[in-house]
Design goal:
The chain contains 21 helices and 19 strands. With 695 residues, the protein is an alpha/beta fold. The protein has five domains: 138 residues, no CATH class; 43 residues; 161 residues, 2-Layer Sandwich (Heat Shock Protein 90), CATH 3.30.565.10; 119 residues, 3-Layer(aba) Sandwich (Rossmann fold), CATH 3.40.50; 132 residues, Rossmann fold (3-Layer(aba) Sandwich). Strands 1, 2, 3, 4, 5, 6 and 7 form a seven-stranded mixed sheet that branches. A five-stranded parallel sheet has the order 9-8-10-11-12, with helices on both faces. The protein has a five-stranded parallel sheet with strand order 15-14-16-17-18, sandwiched between helices. Helix 3 runs antiparallel to helix 4, helix 4 packs antiparallel against helix 5 and helix 18 packs parallel to helix 19. The longest helix is centred in the first third of the chain and has 77 residues. It is elongated.
Length: 695
């Protein structure tokens, strides 16, 4: 529920409470009138009318019939009838002022000046009627005492009337002032949101240039200084995106982009980003993907990736010893599945108060000047905002000094229910996991690895044999037809000669390591880069006798290129053209550039391009207008060129916006190679996508 809904709910509750007071006062008034009428032998017929009216008023209030204004009028008529009935009797000559004052005070709760004026006018009318009755029947002697009493009552009624008017008027003015202040605050908030959005977009351009140039430089010189510049640029780009995400969440402008995605591809992107991190002393990562998670789902994969990255980044900040486990599983539901994403760490943990404050924005567990965790404190707030927008929930379990476990559960539609990882059930396998428990200084890290291995084996429906030392492993190998052995670097280096010999005897020996292993040329031992996860393991299990040729660094196992594809890059920033040209030329594409929409149209008229990469924010003629003119020229000349939006626009709904305008694809800046390759593979004809070893 957003702030506007909360305000409306509070206002409705206040009105109901106020009406309850009015109806209660009217009810006590009716009881008093019935008692007085019985004692003083007033008209008997009025009693059933009062009872019926009281019941009717309570029904109106409890059922909340009609609108607020109509209900208040019903209450007003009811109370005014009570006062009139009481005032028309001669015995009530000196009591009518009290009843009128009570009526005006009661109506002042509604902040309705008209009701107070009507009440005072009724008092004056009753007073005139009383004078007429007393004059005609001569029941009261107007001596000095009675005149003074009458004047005192009239003055009291006038004072109460004026006080009620003043109080309500001031309350209305104060309320209007508050409303005006809220509008000003809302306006300032909107202006700040626009400022943050605009400044973030402006900052993204130079940051993208830094990241792109440093990426190109690392191809020639992978020095530490250049890598630090590159990492700093990536970090700043991420923080700019965090600001954009936060402003969208805070303003209620977050939009979801639903699209089909393959869960293993999402995990691959996460793994690639983790492997690109070059910081020293990073904790160990374990990725536990349940093989039975459906292969293809539908949801906002971009925000899912950000949720996982935010949780991992947050875990890295506060985990100096041990490791981090990313676990993904699914729970079947009528609408598809709940995708459960759990990130556990062995870090410093959080207190209950820190957990409560973690969703309020700009939260940092360590605010001291010498803190080394970094970040701007928006991670968990963004996670909560994204997850709630997708209809999911977040749960945090943590204790100081005992690590933190964050679980998010998000509904997803199932497109292809096939398991994301599977092996041929007709192939006989004898799989051994050789892990020495004593090598883990943090027991939780051992548990993470063991749980991952067991979940993969269970999901793939294979029987996994465990060996805790080299003696047990050799016994298994001597007495059983072992086909696969999975181990860590420490286990392999314990007896490299033995494992190298095993690899030559049709036994697949796969070693998970975060460093390059010194493997002899004649050895068939496979090195699996960390972080280890289910896809490369499944790939090895499915390789059969060709396991020694398996490449486990990427999902395709092949390097892709787009030989001869003629491309035009359109951008008003010269350095963006340099960066994009340098990246795309690595794919053996024929690159041309244009620095404006007008320049792009001129070059398009005079040349044939297979694909055009179009920046969005350009002066005079933006990318969308340029696209529409290109389409017009294409109709005239019979050309249908692919146009891809290449932009720093990172707000929610950007992809859907550009696709609805007629773009064939969307790539956000800074350019991610994985995203670029996926878009090109999707939009280009198969003949233009070249893999090492053939199409």
């Amino acid at each position: 529920m957003n702030e506007k809904d909360n305000f409306q709910t509070e206002k409705a509750d206040h009105i109901r409470s106020m009406h309850l007071v009015i109806v209660t006062v009217a009810t006590f008034g009716a009881i008093g009138l019935i008692s007085a009428g019985t004692t003083l032998k007033w008209e008997f017929w009025i009693t059933p009318i009062l009872v019926i009216s009281t019941v009717a008023v309570w029904i109106i209030h409890i059922s909340q019939l009609w609108t607020e204004e109509i209900r208040e009028r019903c209450y007003m008529i009811y109370i005014m009838i009570e006062v009139f009935f009481h005032g028309v009797h001669a015995t009530s000559f000196f009591d009518v002022a009290l009843m009128a004052c009570l009526m005006m005070v009661t109506f002042s709760l509604t902040d309705n000046i008209k009701l107070i004026k009507y009440s005072f006018l009724e008092y004056l009318l009753i007073l005139v009627m009383q004078f007429y009755l007393e004059y005609r029947e001569d029941l009261i002697t107007f001596d000095a005492l009675n005149i003074s009493r009458l004047l005192l009552h009239v003055f009291t009624a006038v004072i109460v009337y004026r006080v009620c008017l003043y109080t309500v008027s001031r309350r209305i003015i104060y309320s209007d002032t508050i409303d005006e202040y809220k509008e000003q605050v809302k306006k300032r908030d909107n202006e700040m949101e626009d400022f943050l959005t605009n400044i973030s977009h402006e900052l993204r351009t130079p940051v993208n240039v830094v990241n792109g140039i440093s990426t190109l430089m690392m191809k020639d010189d992978d020095g530490d200084n250049i890598r630090q510049i590159h990492n700093a640029g990536i970090r700043m780009a991420g923080q700019i995106e965090d600001i954009l995400d936060y402003t969208e969440i805070d303003s209620g402008k977050l939009m979801l982009e639903y699209d089909k995605y393959i869960i293993s591809s999402l995990i691959n992107d996460i793994v690639v980003n983790l492997r690109l991190k070059s910081e020293k002393d990073l904790p160990e990562f374990i990725i536990d993907l349940d093989p039975v998670v459906p292969l293809t789902l539908k949801g906002d994969v971009k925000k899912l990736r950000k949720i996982i990255e935010q949780l991992l980044n947050n875990a890295v900040k506060f985990t100096k010893r041990g490791g981090i486990c990313l676990k993904i599983k699914s729970e079947p539901r009528d609408y598809g599945i709940n995708l459960d994403i759990t990130v556990s760490d062995t870090g410093i943990g959080m207190s209950k108060s820190e957990i409560q404050r973690s969703t309020r924005g700009f939260f940092q567990a360590d605010k001291s000047r010498d803190r080394s965790s970094g970040g701007i404190g928006l991670g968990l707030t963004i996670v909560y905002g994204f997850v709630h927008a997708m209809g999911g929930f977040v749960n945090i379990e943590s204790e100081p000094g005992r690590g933190t476990t964050v679980t998010v559960s998000i509904p997803q539609e199932v497109i292809d229910p096939s398991p994301c990882l599977s092996v041929d059930p007709n192939v006989d396998r004898f799989v051994v996991s050789y892990i020495k428990p004593e090598k883990y200084s943090v027991p939780a890290l051992r548990d993470y690895n063991q749980s991952m291995a067991e979940n993969i084996a269970r999901g793939l429906k294979i029987h996994l044999h465990n060996a805790a030392n080299i003696k047990d492993l050799k016994t298994l190998c001597e007495n059983n037809p072992v086909t696969h052995i999975f181990m860590g670097r420490e286990e392999y280096e314990e007896d490299t000669a033995y494992f190298n010999d095993l690899s030559k005897q049709n036994v697949c020996v796969a070693v998970s390591s975060d460093e390059m292993l010194n493997i002899p040329r004649d050895s068939k031992v496979i090195c699996m880069p960390k972080p280890l996860y289910g896809f490369p393991i499944t790939k090895i299990l499915n390789a059969g006798d060709d396991y020694d040729k398996v490449v486990v660094d990427d999902l395709s196992g092949k390097k892709v290129s787009f030989d001869g594809v003629k491309a035009l890059i359109v951008d008003d920033e010269r350095m963006n053209l340099v960066v994009a040209s340098g990246l795309f030329k690595d794919y053996r594409m024929d690159i041309d550039t244009a620095d404006s929409g007008a320049d792009a149209l001129e070059k398009y008229r005079n040349n044939n391009y297979d694909v055009i990469f179009m920046d969005h924010m350009m002066p005079e003629m933006d990318g969308v207008e340029t696209l529409h003119r290109i389409r017009e020229i294409g109709k005239e000349t019979g050309r249908d060129t692919l146009v891809v939006a290449l932009t720093a626009n990172a707000v929610s709904g950007a992809r859907e916006l550009f696709m609805s305008e007629g773009f064939d694809g969307f790539i956000s800046k800074p350019i991610e190679i994985g995203e670029f390759e996926r878009v090109m593979k999707r939009i280009l004809p198969v003949s233009m996508v070249i893999y090492d070893g053939g199409n």
